[in-house]
Amino acid sequence: MSYTFKRKCYMQKARNIGVDVKMPTRECDSNLCPFHGTLPVHGRIIEGYVVSDKMTGAVVIRRDYLYKIKKYDRYERRHGKISAKLPACLDVKQGDIVRAMETRPLARNVSFVVIEKVDAKH
Fold first, then answer.
1. DSSP class of 5
2. What is the value of pTM for the model shown?
3. How far apart are CA 13 and CA 35, in angstroms?
4. Which residues of 6-39 are buried (b: 16+ CB within 10 A; e: fewer)?
5. Which of 21, 61, 69, 112 lies 20 to 30 Å from 54, alpha-carbon distance?
């Protein structure tokens, strides 16, 4: 067997990342993919919708949440934006609801990777 054949057989199977998510249908050969590469995932799982997919290989995710003001015993709406790596095997565009998981720092602002497309918002 040649090296390329071994690599091809390896790429056909997506690895288990330890979280109950749908496996991607497409394959990619990126090393920075949690399913087909060697990128480890751990820590927090966030869910939000994609507000921008203009970066190469990354998306911006907006996460809305409620913050309690103790003095008035009420809540206010807040949001945060998080940049996340987008593997080539996932088909995500602007407006999709996605789930991302924490990983090692990949760039100055990128410490999350998209692991699943949940639904389309619009």
1. H
2. 0.82
3. 9
4. eeeeeeeebeebeeebeebeeebeeebbbbbbeb
5. 21
For the domain 26-120, what is the CATH code?
Answer: 2.40.50.1000
Instruction: Evaluate whether 88 touches 94 at the Cβ level (below 8 Å).
Output: no
Domain ranges of the chain: 26-120
Q: How many CB atoms sit inside 10 A of residue 88's CB?
A: 15
Which pLDDT tens digits describe the chain residue by residue (122 residues)? 444 444 444 445 777 888 888 888 888 888 899 988 889 999 999 999 999 999 999 999 999 999 999 999 999 999 999 999 999 999 999 999 999 999 999 999 999 999 999 987 65
